[in-house]
Design brief:
21% strand, alpha/beta, 9 helices
């Protein structure tokens, strides 16, 4: 498969995770690239377990397509996990795909790594041949009509090929419920605000269609069979490494920078204290910082 790097002008695309929790839902993904890479690298143990599981389900795939690939950290993990496969990273952001290609070349995967920039799911029409595995890692929910997108993904699969989507799971946790100051349950309240932002993000997407998030049923509706689901845990206990601590700081900085309308004054004061590098109770110094998260993968197979 020859190197592809097409770029179709299109509306701004969203991706879940590092978006600001304020009122707006637009994100500059090129600006967010370093955070996206750091996040994916930190979550690599979780992704490695998920890909190892997929490796037991899909034998010797010829073409793997990572839709919504971002800067390519997971795309490169696919190249490493499946050394006989060609990997195609597909995303709406050409700058992110440039980082993906540079990462692949730096890791020695460049000869079997390609990129395509364009709007999903239509850009998949450019595939030279059907895929044996299509992966959508927390990207499907940024397409307005998810049911139609799943049907389009399924059409691009080879007979016997697998579609794997990572959707749902549990929110990340960094701190105990009671911080020793402020109201207990800060992170649970932040989750509630994030859910409201997510609903607005979905509502703002072009052609959005509300769906019950029964992913196995939606995969079946796309004409696929043998739907399965499995969750994967990231458990990085205290004491936190410097990478975990830096990620936690970035996470809480996003919340502190949200508008005054989003958070109660006492929660904003708690965030100020958490982010004070001189405060022993802040995330820079406190000994009980950890990272605990779970992501769920749903798979189904195209009938032969």
């Amino acid at each position: 498969m020859a190197h592809q790097q097409h770029d179709h002008h299109r509306p701004h695309e969203h991706r879940h995770g590092p978006a600001g929790p304020g009122r707006g839902t637009e994100i500059d993904w090129a600006e967010m690239a370093p955070h996206l890479e750091a996040q994916a690298e930190l979550f690599t143990p979780l992704y490695e377990r998920a890909l190892s599981w997929l490796g037991g389900e899909v034998t010797e795939p010829g073409l793997i397509v990572d839709v919504g690939s971002g800067p390519g950290v997971i795309s490169c993990l696919f190249a490493e996990t499946f050394p006989g496969a060609r990997v195609l990273a597909v995303d709406g952001s050409a700058p992110l795909l440039q980082r993906a290609r540079a990462r692949a070349e730096g890791l020695g995967h460049g000869d079997r790594f390609d990129t395509v920039a364009g709007e999903l799911p239509g850009v998949l029409d450019e595939l030279d041949y059907p895929a044996d595995l299509i992966w959508a890692g927390r990207s499907l929910h940024h397409i307005g009509d998810q049911r139609a997108a799943l049907a389009a993904f399924a059409q691009r699969l080879a007979p016997g090929g697998m579609l794997a989507i990572m959707e749902g799971g549990l929110p990340s946790r960094f701190l105990p419920r009671d911080l020793g100051f402020g109201r207990p349950g800060l992170e649970a309240r932040l989750d509630a605000v994030q859910e409201e932002w997510f609903a607005r993000m979905r509502a703002d997407l072009p052609g959005t269609v509300g769906e019950a998030e029964d992913w196995p049923a939606l995969l079946g509706g796309a004409g696929l069979k043998d739907a399965r689901s499995r969750s994967f845990l990231l458990d990085l206990p205290a004491p936190a490494s410097e990478r975990v601590r830096a990620y936690a700081v970035t996470h809480f900085e996003r919340w502190r920078d949200a508008s005054d309308e989003v958070l109660a004054p006492d929660d904003r004061a708690a965030l100020d204290r958490l982010l004070d590098p001189r405060d022993p109770a802040g995330v820079h110094q406190r000994p009980d910082v950890f990272l605990l998260a779970a992501h769920t993968v749903h798979t189904a197979v195209k009938p032969g």
